[in-house]
Amino acid sequence: MSRDLIPKLVYIIVAAVSLSGAFRALSQSVSLEGKIEGIVLDANGAVVPDASVSAFNLNTGQSRTTRSNQEGTYRFPLISPGQYVITAEANGFKRFERRGVNLSAGETGIVDISLEAGNPSESVAVTFDTAIADPSRFAVGRNLNSRDVNNLPLVSRNPYNFILLQPGVNGREVTNPNVIDMSVAGLRRRVGYQIDGSDNNDYNASGFRLDFLSEIFIQEMQLLSTNYPAEYGDTAGAIVNVITRSGSNNTNGSLSFIYRPSALTAKPFGSQPGTGTNVNAYGGTAAVGGAIIKDRWHIFAAYEWTRRNSIQPISVAPENRTRLIDTGLPPSIFINKLPLSDTLPYLSVRTDASVSGSTRVSLRYNNFVSGLKHSGPGGVLTTERSFGFSGYAYALAAQAVTTFSPTLFSEFHFQDATHITRTIADEQQSGRGPTVTITNVAAFGPDPNLGVISPSESTVQFQETITRIAGNHTFKFGGGMNFIEDHPAAQLASQYTFSRIEDYISAVSGTTPQSYQRYQESTGDNAIPDSGTFSNLFAQDEWIISRRARLSVGVRYELFRPPEFDPAAVLPASRKFNIDTNNIAPRVGFTYLLRNGKFRTVVRVGGGVHYDPPLLGMYRRALLNNGNPRYGSFTLTPCHCSATPNFPNRLGTVQPPKDLDAVAQDFQTMYAIRSSVQIEQAVSNESSITIGYINSIARHIPVYRNINCLPTGVTLADGRPIYGAGPNRCINKVYPQYNIIKMAESVGNQNYQGLFVQWMQRFSHGIQVNVNYTFSHSIDDAPEENGPGALTSSDPSNRGTDRGASRGDIANVLNLSLVLRPQFHFENAFLNTLLNHNQIGVIMIADSGEAFNITTGDLNLDGVTGPAGPDRPVGILRNSGRLPAYIGVDTRYSRYFGLSEKRSLEFYIEATNLFNKKQVDGYDGANLPLSLVDLATGILRVQLPDRSTLLPTWRDSRQVQLGIKFHF
After folding, report:
1. Do the Cβ atoms of 526 and 450 come closer than 8 Å?
2. What span, in angstroms and rounded, lies between the C-alpha atoms of 302 and 254?
3. pLDDT tens string 362-401
4. Which of 250, 355, 377, 809 has the maximum number of C-beta atoms within 10 A of its C-beta?
């Protein structure tokens, strides 16, 4: 915990209370509040104006009162999630009371009220939840309630796996706390993470979160993928808002023990006999919440500690292992004996209080400490690649909601958050000397990222939203600022890459000391800070046009200020970073209640522009690698001369031309134009079917291109220019004093179309289920991978060469989440006990196969080699390969034993990949040897290898976890 925690807490409390009513130009967030609204009618369907309507929260005792307007409409905006009782009173009518109203964060609960004529001292009580087909909802997405979060299988303890359970999203689950590799409407790793409406993004790398969360902290998750209104932003992809648990008037909590025995977990696929072991894990959780002052001040605290141990098998082929040992490598590095040890401690404390009659304040503190050892080995990576992580993440956040009147409200957010991770050496296993990789054979020497500090990011965020109700209009306007400070440290390493084991043997024996394919080195001052400021303003109006029609119109403005440029940069493009001031994002949504009554039909149409903030990591590379001698990195191919080192030496004081990174001076912010059409049909009071269409057009996607090479006039068979001759690459340079110059340009385009169908049933008759199927296609010309290790254009002269399927293009995706708690009634007491008190949770994800790239070496001789930029043989489109179809089933079974009215024991067992299905993760052999290609034409000499002939890597085998939880 930070030494500055106390003063920061004091500052947060003062700021939240004093600024709760003041408008600021502050930062985007998703509210942790919801709203309840409806219309008050008499028995004949006529509106009842000036009726007194109250909403009482059964969890916290909070109550709000308003009056219906001349159109009979009432609204409770900015109201806490929970279970509500809605009452209404009017002269000449019986008192109305509706129970069973459950409100989620960001949700609008529609509660229409029908008053009966009579004495106000009489009352009419009904129990119904909100309408299943909600005409106030515009976005494509879903909410996961507490029943989903707490009872769906989650062996990984990573709740962000649930991102995949919504239309238009695909990707793969992880069995650890890592980032979910996902795509939204074809855009990879574009996501806006939020916690209680506060920012939770790592702005250095796309798709990474800033803080970590345990499932026990979470009340529900709000997932939005398309067509969200102007108050949501800072991403061109999905919004994921995690709502943390809060205390209530009733003291309750849980204690649990978690155990993942290796005996129940299947061996990793690809394990060689006698090597590797299964995953085992153990840990526990504790959570408690209650009232400090009933109805006014509540608190919730939770802690989780988990340790995971596993040994990933090293699968270097026996014949290659023997040959490498003969060169002097120790046999022990090919056998992994020390388990990866991942310690995961999570802490969260949240308190909510009414500090005055009109202001409610929420304070939250989250903390996580990194503790990973012996990571890295597995597959072709030997134990010398072992490393660990050390660091921490914390967040201090506050929210204040002030009610000035029944029609005027303020919502203020503040957050101070930090995440630091250091990559450290494993004293027992990490190698010494240069890093060596023999493609698809073996990798040894130290991990090149040792000493890297990333992320090292701090953020201070302010946000204010004003809500004003005027007749049938709900106006919102606000804005914000997010101040981001980044102090990472880049790698300092030397790396040799060989294409064949024979070449390595030749180099290590001294026969051909420059038989490597590529040499990379980085040196100098690697701790150069950067920072950015992200700000925005928005205004929107949600207009209830009639009882059937609603219109949402808004506009959002976003300004992303990059880090300060380096005036000492040698490359002119790096002496100034463009600030794009044209990021205006209009949004519109329209819903129409096509059919009212018991089984509603709702039509939704909408669209808008969504901007994606540029990654600070892109600017950081331009600050590090700008020709300033304080830091440099370079990539060399052997020239069999003194300009390139003999293996295993470093270059030392004689530095070759450096590799540079730059950002185009006309760089513009990426955006996506999203539109959607949905028809939702209620088929019961608790279930509905939605059919929808999503279209996304993305522009200004960042693309990296080597701008330093001039063509020689010779081309490959498909017209791609060649930039070298023989073994010499990039022989004619724009800047002869430099090597590769990667320029980030905002020139990429993407198009996505998707059809989806979704069936949703709220918990009823012992079942809660959500199933969605998406049929889609995405194509782009931006091989940037939207993350670290960005790819480079394979043809720097023609971006169209890289036009092909998007990395996130999967034609067919089916997702299912199910919570089943059946109830049986038998005369036999034994059968009643046996067949009741059981619960099953199921997640199924199936798809028709991910795209992958089929590549070879540096055909065009532009010097861009390795994972970041291999070329494709002539006639092979980007991402034209397809993995086999995937289907994964995770499940959880729970058995409950009642101890008293409020106490129970839960025993559960959960598993990922329940049927232990062996499924392909990727292909090591997708980078074809250059020997298969005619180097003069770029045409394959042989038929393209079938994927069955490639060397596969495998997804995780079955993981089984046991648990016991005491509820009180």
Report:
1. no
2. 9
3. 999 999 998 899 999 988 999 999 999 999 999 999 999 9
4. 377
